[in-house]
Structure formats: C-alpha cells, structure tokens
Amino acid sequence: MLPRPRLLIVDDELLIRDLLYDFFKNRDYDIAVAENGQRALDQFAGGHFDTIILDLKMPDMDGLELAARIRATDQDVPIIIMTGYPSLDSAIEALRRRADDYFVKPFNLKQMSKAVEAALARTASKRPELSTGETRI
Known about the structure:
Elements: E1 6-10, H1 14-25, E2 30-34, H2 37-45, E3 51-55, H3 63-73, E4 79-83, H4 88-96, E5 101-104, H5 109-123
Parallel strand pairs: 1-2, 1-3, 3-4, 4-5
Helix pairs in contact: 2-3
C-alpha cells in the first residue's frame, strides 16, 4: 500500500483549517493542522510533509516569515500561501520566498486541490512512492 501524501495546513481561522482538513482527508491525504506559526514549526520539526498550505496573516508569525523558516530547514517542500488580504507586495514577496502558489480567500477548493496535486507531482521525483498516476480531485 502506498503511503498517503502528508499535508500541513496552517491557519489561525478554525473554519479554514476545518474546511481544508475535511476536504483533503476525504481525498485520502494524511493531514496535520496548526493554528499558528510556532505550532506549525513544531509539527514540521516532528515529521515530513509533502506540501504545506499556510495563511499569510497570523497573529504570532506571518506566513512569509513561517515560509522563510521552513525554507531554512527544507528547500524543496512545496508551500502554498493563502490570504484574505491580497496585495501585489505580498504576492511578490511570496514568490521571492519560493512559494509554489498563492491563493486569495475565498478560494476554490478544486483549484486548491489542483495546486496540491501539482506540488506533489513536482516532488514525486524525490519521493517516487507518491507517483501513483491517480488524480485525487
């Protein structure tokens, strides 16, 4: 049996965490959630994740700082940033920090799922067991 892809979902809004958790869990992903940047770093230090979906605006540590701290440890893990406060500056900074995608809330779950699948496809060469040929959408 192939291992399920592991996602880390980071958002200070419980509704968003629950929405993404339920959506991806129903598509057979292994999910971890964190309500802030520090908790996300603790989760990240405790295990491997295939993709990280994180919020840009959080009270203790914003998503750009979190992305930078994750990148200091793992240059290759895909990071998808989402925000309810989009700006050209934040989008440019997300690209500078090597975010794989940038979503504005409210986002389309099917598009988010496609972004996660694309991220997994990019990492499949590093973890061939993730390359199943299946589409999870």
